């Protein structure tokens, strides 16, 4: 049978409206999806940028905190925090040196082993070790013997610093009677040899631990070395062997090298090695029987010679006003 034309027209009109509605719905959904994706991308960008900014702010804060604490000398920070700060500053120095080497390589066609300052002067490389030879009044013969044996003097001393990166200085304090003949003799010797580090501290046997602490602190402030060594003025150092040993440990940040021991703590005032703070080292009854019936010092290196890494020396320098020393 033949269909009614009016009915066909209405049917086609309804189909056309339905198609238009579906197309509009799809377009609307597509716009919403695009909007959500854009919002997500925007939030992600803000999040990443915020994390990067926070990381940068933390590094700046750590550096400022180190500068503040170093200047005041009144607050202590942990070893971990100190090492993080030191690592951040060392990375900055290495990056600056690499940038200067790269600029020199582009101009000269090779990579230079030394970096140049802005005025064209060649800067010295970082010392491998700073050796402090602890000495005292009346020991000039010992110092002269060391100068002849391994330390050198004058041009030889400078050559040791420049070629092998080993800085050596005799460490001595001041007389209890400031300005007396002892002080004058040391000042005269310094003017002749220029190899003395004179501390603003009274030279006395009971002050040896504080003397060593002050040496590490001042040496870390004056030289940015990989290691710092304390040596007595009757020890003859094999420079080549020392350099080879320290080079093998240069990648370690926490190094304490020496002849380790745990010496006895004596509580009798009449004893030669009397320790006024003997009671801080535990109860005799609770000590391990292998140590004997006496208190023991914390495990430490024998005083004749020992080495610590640069990070530990900087830790001593930062917290020097709060560190505790014991008699022996």
List keywords for this structure.
single chain; 328 residues; alpha/beta; Spore Coat Polysaccharide Biosynthesis Protein SpsA, Chain A; 6-stranded mixed beta sheet; elongated
Q: Name the CATH architecture of the domain at 129-254 and 303-322.
A: Alpha-Beta Complex
Q: How many beta-strand elements? A: 6
Bin the helical content: 40-55%
Low-confidence stretches: 109-123, 285-293
Structural class: alpha/beta
The H-and-E topology, N to C, reads as HHEHHEHEHEHEEH
CATH domain topology of the domain at 129-254 and 303-322: Spore Coat Polysaccharide Biosynthesis Protein SpsA, Chain A
Major sheet: size, sense and barrel closure? 6 strands, mixed
What would CATH call the class of the domain at 129-254 and 303-322? Alpha Beta
Question: How many distinct helices?
Answer: 8
Q: Terminal Cα separation, in Å?
A: 122 Å
Average pLDDT reading: 79
Radius of gyration: 35 Å
Strand content: 5-15%
Strand order of the largest sheet: 3-2-1-4-6-5
Membrane topology: Single-pass type II membrane protein
InterPro entries: DUF4094, Glyco_trans_31
Keywords: Glycosyltransferase, Golgi apparatus, Manganese, Membrane, Signal-anchor, Transferase, Transmembrane, Transmembrane helix
Subcellular location: Golgi apparatus membrane
Quick description:
With 328 residues, the chain is α/β, with parallel strands linked by helices. The chain has 8 helices and 6 strands, in the order ααβααβαβαβαββα.
Protein architecture, described:
Its main location: Golgi. It comes from Theobroma cacao. It is an enzyme of class 2 (transferase). Its EC number is 2.4.1.-. Pathway: Protein modification; protein glycosylation. The chain has helices at residues 5-72, 79-108, 140-151, 155-164, 181-193, 208-222, 239-247, 310-318, and strands at residues 129-134, 166-174, 196-202, 227-232, 256-261, 300-309. It is of the alpha/beta class and 328 residues long. Among the domains are: 28-70; 129-254 and 303-322, Alpha-Beta Complex (Spore Coat Polysaccharide Biosynthesis Protein SpsA, Chain A), CATH 3.90.550.50. Strands 3-2-1-4-6-5 form a six-stranded mixed β-sheet, sandwiched between helices. Strand 2, helix 5 (181-193) and strand 3 (196-202) form a beta-alpha-beta unit. Helix 1 (5-72) packs across helix 2, helix 2 (79-108) packs across helix 8 (310-318) and helix 6 (208-222) packs across helix 8. The chain is elongated, with a radius of gyration of 35 Å.
């Amino acid at each position: 049978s033949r269909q009614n034309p009016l009915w066909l027209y209405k049917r086609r009109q309804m189909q056309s409206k339905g198609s238009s509605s579906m197309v509009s719905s799809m377009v609307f959904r597509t716009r919403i999806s695009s909007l959500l994706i854009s919002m997500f991308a925007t939030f992600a960008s803000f999040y990443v940028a915020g994390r990067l900014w926070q990381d940068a702010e933390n590094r700046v804060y750590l550096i400022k905190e180190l500068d503040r604490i170093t200047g005041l000398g009144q607050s202590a920070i942990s070893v971990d925090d100190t090492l993080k700060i030191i690592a951040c500053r060392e990375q900055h120095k290495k990056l600056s040196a690499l940038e200067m080497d790269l600029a020199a390589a582009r101009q000269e066609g090779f990579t230079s082993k030394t970096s140049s300052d802005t005025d064209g002067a060649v800067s010295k490389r970082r010392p491998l070790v700073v050796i402090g030879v602890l000495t005292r009044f009346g020991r000039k013969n010992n110092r002269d013997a060391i100068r002849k044996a391994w330390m050198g003097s004058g041009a030889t001393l400078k050559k040791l610093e420049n070629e092998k990166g080993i800085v050596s200085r005799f460490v001595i304090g001041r007389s209890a009677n400031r300005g007396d003949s002892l002080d004058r003799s040391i000042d005269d010797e310094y003017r002749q040899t220029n190899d003395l580090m004179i501390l603003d501290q009274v030279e006395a046997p009971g002050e040896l631990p504080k003397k060593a602490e002050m040496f590490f602190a001042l040496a870390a402030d004056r030289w940015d070395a990989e290691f710092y060594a304390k040596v007595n003025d009757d020890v003859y150092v094999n420079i080549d062997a020392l350099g080879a040993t320290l080079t093998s440990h240069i990648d370690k940040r926490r190094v304490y090298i020496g002849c380790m021991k745990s010496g006895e703590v004596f509580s009798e005032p009449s004893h030669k090695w009397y320790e006024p703070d003997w009671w801080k080292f535990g109860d005799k009854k609770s000590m391990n029987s292998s140590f004997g019936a006496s208190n023991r010092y914390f495990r430490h290196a024998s005083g004749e010679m020992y080495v610590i890494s640069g990070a530990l020396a900087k830790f001593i320098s930062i917290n020097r006003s709060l560190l505790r020393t014991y008699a022996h």
